[in-house]
């Protein structure tokens, strides 16, 4: 339903106009109680939506290899010849989708040529993984972003990064507790 289609004769637009239009229609049809409940629930959703002219906030900066140990929320995994700095966005919790931002940190300062990257998670105690497969974006030099991860139950999980670097495989694992 469009904002102008729901306003009826009021001619108002936007969330307030939709609310007035729904209330007027409910009064005419005798369904005011149900409409008030729907209106209250729907108006909260509409009022929280960004306006057409609003700009989305800039994406968070990727984790830095230099500050991964000191920055809140940034984690670092030591690998063979390189480390991986990562951060979850938003913070990890049960049932809330999140993304993982990560960067590869070669210890000798050389650039890293990545042939393949895979991000996954699993619960060792339960011997199962996530119900979702993340999508990855990024370039060979990074930074990378894995989106669409979701921990569907609380407990001890392992976040797993599988890399293929110049023909060799590298598996980096970090233990995370999800509440």
Number of strands: 9
Q: Quick one: overall form?
A: globular
CATH level-four homologous superfamily name of the largest domain: Macroglobulin (MG2) domain
Tell me what the CATH architecture of the largest domain is: Sandwich
Mean pLDDT: 75
Q: What is the level 1 CATH name of the largest domain?
A: Mainly Beta
Write a structural description.
The chain is an alpha+beta fold. The protein folds into 2 domains: 8-48, no CATH class; 75-178, Immunoglobulin-like. Helix content is 18%, strand content 36%. The protein contains 2 helices and 9 strands. The protein has helices spanning 14-29, 32-48, and strands at residues 75-78, 82-89, 98-106, 114-123, 128-129, 135-138, 144-149, 155-165, 168-178. The strands form 2 sheets. A 5-stranded antiparallel beta sheet has the order 1-2-3-7-6, with no helix packed on it. Strands 5-4-8-9 form a 4-stranded antiparallel beta sheet, with no helix packed on it. The protein is globular and about 40 Å long. Mean pLDDT is 75; it is low at 1-12 and 32-51.
